[in-house]
Amino acid sequence: MLLVGVDFGLPHFDAELEELGLLAQTAGLDPVAHLTCKRRAPDPALFVGSGKAEEIGALAAEHGATEVLFDQALSPAQQRNLERSLDMPVNDRTMLILEIFAQRARSHEGKLQVELARLQYLSTRLVRRWSHLERQAGGIGMRGGPGETQIELDRRMIGEAIKRTKERLEKVKRQRTTQRRQRRRNDAFAVSLVGYTNAGKSTLFNALVKARAYAADQLFATLDTTTRQLYLPQVECSVSLSDTVGFIRELPHGLVEAFEATLQEAVDADLLLHVVDGSSPAWVEQIAEVQQVLAEIGADHILQLLVFNKLDAIPPERRPRTLVDTYEVDHRQIPRVHVSAREGLGLDAVREAMADAVRTRREAASRTLADDAHADPLLPLD
After folding, report:
1. How far from each other are the two terminal CA atoms of the chain, in whole angstroms?
2. Which of 1, 11, 2, 8 is nearest to 249 (CA)?
3. What is the torsional sign of CA 103, 201, 235, 375?
4. Pairing status of strand 237-243 against strand 226-232
5. How do 90-91 and 68-70 pair as beta strands?
6. Among positive and negative, which fits the CA dihedral 254, 23, 264, 311?
7. What separation in angstroms does the CA of 71 have from each of 8, 74, 93, 187, 253?
8. Residue 132 CA to chain centroid, in angstroms?
9. What is the pLDDT of residues 195-213, one digit of tens each?
10. Nearest alpha carbon to residue 262 among 106, 103, 118
C-alpha cells in the first residue's frame, strides 16, 4: 500500500504520515512507501493534479503497491477519477477509520453504529461501484442516462438499510437513556474518560477501578463504552466511571453521528477526565481535536480534568517538576495531573481531583436548596 498526504498549509499536517501508517497497520494493511506534496487547494478532478497522479502511479509500480491510501477525505468523483487514472483501488482516511471501527466493534450497539456510518459513506460512493453499468444503453422511452435504474435501485436499498439501522439504534439509545436515568435516581456522580485514541484511557480505567477492559498500545483498541463503580473514600461515595471511544483527527462526521448513543455518556457526565498522551510530540494538536469533538457533541461546557498520561515514557530530564498544575484550554485554566496509568503513578491525585468535583457539586446543590428554602419558607432545608 502507498500512503499519500497533501500539505495544504494546515498546522496539523503529518509530513511523515506516521499516524496514517499506524492506522493502516491497525487495519491489517502493509504500507510500503509514502509520498507527500504541497498544494494551495485540492484539484477538483484528481485531488493532487494530473502530474502528481502520474508520480503516484510510478512510485506505486516501483514498490509493488497495489492500493493507494490518502490521508485526507476524497470526494466520490476524485476517488473514481484517481482509480481510473492509477488503475488500482484508491481509498481515503475516512474509509480506513470506518474499516478499523468495523473490525473492532464487539457489542451489538457498536456494530450497529459502525454499520450505519458505513452505509452512509457508501451511499455517496455508488457512482464508483457501478462503472460496469455504463455498458447499458438507454432505449427509446427510457429516462436518464445509462445504468440509472440500477443505481437508483441500489440507492433505495441502502436508504432502506440506513432507515432500519437507525430504528434499531434508536431502541438502544432509549435503553441507555433508561440506564442513565436510573443512575441519576441513585444520585450517582458520573465521570467519563475522553481523549485522543491511544492516549491510555482504557489503561487508566483499569488502574482506577481494577477492571479488565481491553487495553493495548494501538489506535482504537476499544470502541464500546464500559461503566464501573469507583468508591472514593474522601467523600464516602461511589462515582460512575465510563470509558468511551477515542477521538482522532478528522474523525468522520458520520461516525460522530452514529456513535451518538455512546458519546452521550460524555454529554451527560458531571466530570470529564480528558486523557492526554503526554509523551506524544503532537499532544497540543490532539487536545484541540478532542475539544472540537466535545464541542460538536455539546459536551464542551462540562467540568474537565486533564490527565497527562504516559509519564513513564517521558525522559527524566523532560518530566514536569510538579505533578499537579493547570493548563489553559480555550482561554480557561483547567486542572491538570501528570500520571503513569501503567505504573500507577499519580492515581491518588486523580482520585482526589474527582473527590473535589463531588464536593463542588454537593456544595452547589446545598446552595440551591438553601436558596429555594429562602424563597419558600415552607420548604425544609434537609
Report:
1. 66
2. 11
3. negative
4. antiparallel
5. parallel
6. negative
7. 12, 9, 5, 45, 16
8. 36
9. 998 899 989 999 999 866 6
10. 106
CA distances, 245 to each of 112, 137, 200, 212, 296 (Å): 15, 48, 11, 16, 15
Single-letter amino acid code for the residue at 379: L
**78 grid coordinates:** 476524485
Residue 176: which H helix or E strand, with range?
helix 148-185
Cα–Cα distance, 237 to 227 (Å, whole number): 16
Distance, C-alpha 347 to centroid of its chain? 25
Q: Taking a C-beta distance cutoff of 8 angstroms, is the pair 327, 299 a contact?
A: no
pLDDT tens, 206-245? 999 986 665 666 667 666 678 899 999 999 999 999 988 7
Query: Where do we find the cell 457508501?
Result: 122
And the C-alpha cell for 49?
493534479
The type of residue at 327 is Y
- DSSP string for 125-140: -HHHH-GGGGGSPP-T
CB 190 within 8 A of CB 269: yes
- Per-residue buried b or exposed e for 180-206, using 16+ beta carbons within 10 Å of the residue's own CB: beeeeeeebbbbbbbbbbbbbbbbbbb
pLDDT at 373 (0 to 100): 63
Which residues, other chains included, contact 243 with Cβ-Cβ below 8 Å and sequence gap of 6+? 193, 201, 202, 205, 213, 222, 225, 226, 227
**pTM score over 0.70:** yes
